[in-house]
Amino acid sequence: MTESGGSDPEDSGAPRRRIGPYEQSLRESRERAVAAEREHARRRRRTRAVAAGVTLVLVGGLGYGAYRYVGQREVPTTVPTVAAQPTSCAHPVKVRVAVAPAIAPVVGAAATSLAKRPDAPCAAYTIDSEEPFSVAGSLLGAGRPDAWITDSAVWVGRANAVSRSNLVPAAPFATSPVLVAMNDEAAAALGSRLGWADLLGGSVAVRVPDPNRSAIARNVLGVAASSLPAARMRSLVTTSAPTAGGGVTLEGLARARGGAVVSQAQLVGWNAAHPEEPLAAVAPAEGAPALEYSLLPLTTDAAKARLVTALGSYLATAETQKLLQDSGFRTASGNPKDPSPLYGQIRVGGHADGALPPGVASLWNASSRKTQALLAVDVSGSMLERTDKGTRLAIVQKSTVRALAAVSPTAIASLWVYSLHVGSRADDFRQLTDYAGLGVAKSLTALDAAVTGLDTYVGGGSGLYDTIAAAYDRAKGAWRPGFTNTLVVVADGPNEDDYGLTLDLLKKRLAAAKDPGRPVRVVVLGIGGRADAAAMRQVVTVTGGEYVSTETVEDLQPALAKALGG
C-alpha cells in the first residue's frame, strides 16, 4: 500500500523481483482489457457526439424545410393553372375571374380552399392573372370575364369609357401600401434620406412603370410631384418613359444598386418566391396612396353572379383575411407584419384618385416610345379546332383584345384578318379597322368589337404569303416618323394558297419594297407550333424582323403584347 501522493513500489528505484511467464501474461491481458475499455469508451463518446451533430443538422434542416414549406403555404406565389373542382357537386359552373397580378396567387389559393369545403358553391373558378389596365380596355366582348378584381378605381373609369359600361367601384376588401424595393446594402446606404425627392430621379436608379398603365406609378408620381424639383422630375420621366412597361420586374435587383417602386404585397410575394434573392423595403417618408383591391361582378348571368358573390364572401372570411395579411395586404381585420429589413416607417398618404399632374402626364407621353402596328390575324379553318380551353379562335380572340389593351396608349394600331378569299374582292386579306390611337376609347371599342366578331370570317385555307406582301405595302404606305413601324402576323399554320405568291416571290417582293428611309419591321408569331418556322425565318430576315414560336395557343398573349410594343 502507498500513502496519498506516494509512488508504486514497481516505479521506485528498489530492486525488482523477477516476473514469471504466467504472471507476465496476466498483466498483458489486464493491460489489453483496460486499453480495450478505454477505446470502447472513446468510441461511445464519439458516437454520441456524431449523433448529436446529425440530430442538430436534421432538426435544423427540418426546421428550415418546415419554414420554407410553411412560408410558401402562408404566402402563395403562383396562380393555379386549373380551376379547383368543388367537392359539393359533380358538374360545377365555370366562372372566370380576371385578377390583378399581385393578389392573384392569394385569390387562387382562396378559391382552391373554398372548393374543398363541404358547402362550397357549385363553381369552378378560373383565376386569370391580368393587369387591370389591360382588362379595363377589353371588356366589351371576347375578353370579358365573369368578374374582375382590380387594384384601383381609376381602371373602372377606363372600363366604362371603352366598353360603354356603367360599372361602379366597389369597396376594397384589401389594400397594399407602396414602397421601394432594393437590396439591403443599397437601402442601408441611403441613411436617413428616405423622401421621394431622395429616391426618385437622383443617383439611385429606381424603376418606375408607365403611369398610364400602373396604379402604383400614378400614386407615386402624384405624391412625388409636390416634392421633386422640376428638373429632377423631368430627368426621372425622360429616363424612365422610353423603357417603362405596365409593371415593374424585380429581377436582378438583388445584385443591383437601384430599386423599383412596388406594393408591399408584391415585395412580400417576391421574397417568398425568391428566398435566395431577398429584397429590403424602403418606406418613403411622405408615403403614397395604397393600392385598393375590389371585386366587381361583370356577368349578366344571374346564376354566375351568385357564384361571384359567394367568392367575394369567402374573401372576407377570417381564414382568407389571415392569408391576405400573411401575403402583405391590409384588411379590415388587421395589417400585415412589416417586411424585414425595413428602412423607414410604412405609411399611407395622399388620395387614391389616380390623378396625375397634367405636366407629368404630357411629359411622360412625349418621352415614351411610340409604336405603330398593323396586326394581321389568321382566321383560316384550323382556328375552329377545340382545345381544353375552347376553340383556338376563342383563345386568340381573348389574347388579341388583352394584348391590344395592354400596350401604351401612345401606340397606334390597325387590324386585318386573312384566309383564302376572305376579302371583299376575293383577296386573301381584309382590313377590319384602320390605323387609330389606342389612347382613344373609341378606337379600343372598335378593335374590341372587331376581334369579337372574328368568327364571322373563319374558314378556308391560309393565304399567308399574299397577306404579308399586301400588309407590308400598307404599313410602308402609312409609315409614321418617330414611331417604330411594325407588321405583326399571327399565323396558325403554313401558307395554303397554291395560286398566290410563292416563298421565293414573297422574299423578292419584300426586298424590292424595302426602303431604308421608311423601315417596317415584320414580326411573325407562330402559335402552337403549326407555322412553317423555316419559311417564316427567311421572310422576316428580309426586313430585319423576328419570328416567334409559341408552344401553345395560350402563350400568344404576352408574345403579342411585346410585338405590339407593350
TrEMBL record:
Region (Disordered): 1-40
InterPro entries: VWF_A (IPR002035), vWFA_dom_sf (IPR036465)
Gene3D superfamilies: von Willebrand factor, type A domain
Alphabetical keyword list: Membrane, Transmembrane, Transmembrane helix
Comp. bias (Basic and acidic residues): 25-40
Pfam families cross-referenced by the UniProt entry: SBP_bac_11 (PF13531)
Record-annotated VWFA domain positions: 372-564
Segments traversing the membrane: 49-67
SMART domains in UniProt: VWA (SM00327)
Name of the protein in question: Substrate-binding domain-containing protein
Species: Terrabacter ginsenosidimutans
